[in-house]
Please model this.
Amino acid sequence: MKIIHVKENTLGEMIGLKAGDRLLKINGKRVIDEIDYRFRITDESITLDLEIDGKMDKVSIDKDYDDDLGVEFEEFKIRKCGNDCVFCFVDQNPEGMRSGMYFRDGDYRLSYLHGHYITMTNMAQNELNRIVEQKMSPLYISVHTTDVELRQKLLLYGKEDFLMDKIDFLTENGIQLHTQVVLIPGLNDGKYLIKTMKDMYSYYPKVNSISIVPVGLTKHRVGLPELSTVTPEYAEKLVDYAESLKAQFPGSEDQPFIFLSDEWYIVAKKPFRPIVEMGGLNLIENGVGQVQSFLEDFEAESESFPTSFSEPTSFTIATGHLAYGIFEKNVIPVLNNIENLHVNLVEIKNNFYGDMVTVAGLLSGQDIVKQLKGQEIGDAVWCSHRILNDEGTVTLDDMTLADLSSQLGVPVNVSHDSILEIFNRKIHG
Model:
């Protein structure tokens, strides 16, 4: 593994490591990625095989259990997903987006490190063995359906992927799993959904949860299978159905087994589950409990809001259709009750993907600019941090915040689900 940075006052600096050097082995075992490193560096007596200035070297160190080298490595090559799912969002992307939007991630290491959902279709036994050996738990698995024939129709993998055998192996060896179903009306719902839930629940509590999220469809589906979108009527029935299954598939006292993403409740215009039923919000990045968490944080933060501004101040919050109603009802009235503050709320229509895509995290820079230009937007514009990539640098259509700011003539900033963050950064941050 290539080292790209060595922190000061660390073991790595002490033994003379620098950017460009390579860590090859720890105690004779290959180190091929960050997970290998984390797993093997915990020994108290270690021998490092290194490549320094092109020459091989060995260094032995005695250290405490929790000491590491204090180095950062270049990112490992991510494994591509082996499927061609009929609902894959990557296939629905138009041209002109950042390069990462065209890559199908199917890497179990990112599932462990960052909670990414993977299907395991092309996962080999040696990879399953490694997961068990290095205790990569929990993992996040996209199941979609456990019916063998339907899986091949949905995933287009081309052959049996032995999903249940893999789940058997992982759970028997102590690996906890969170599972997910992307629900497509008329395809993997009905009898198929109940079979999937029954099959996953048979592993409970080792399979800790099953989350149901609605299929996301864009206007860019030329040449792709025709799929049905989620309507308000369908969402309402699904929420009621999921509630009726609580007794059949009970979870623990503080966490249910079945979760629905927030979008179902918003589209159905149904009240959310109490936050205490969200299982510690460990599925929040899958859209489970985001709204409730934000509203609870907002209520707590509001006690620290200023009661007034010394001079007239205004800014704009720009969001997608899905969150617009939440902000309009719960946030804007509180903010506009602050003396000398006026907050505009603007719903950005997703012309880039089509109006079936309503989440703020899939808004393009060009839609934000086009729909805010010419409006009274005040001193600054604030958007969700989810409009940017994981590094926080560009939108999905490859625009920076500086690009947006330049075109709109005011600072464009992102907030991490916190209104107080906006105030702390004095609006113009």
Remarks:
- The chain has 15 helices and 14 strands.
- The chain has three domains: 3-73, 90-286, 297-424.
- The longest strand covers residues 308-319.
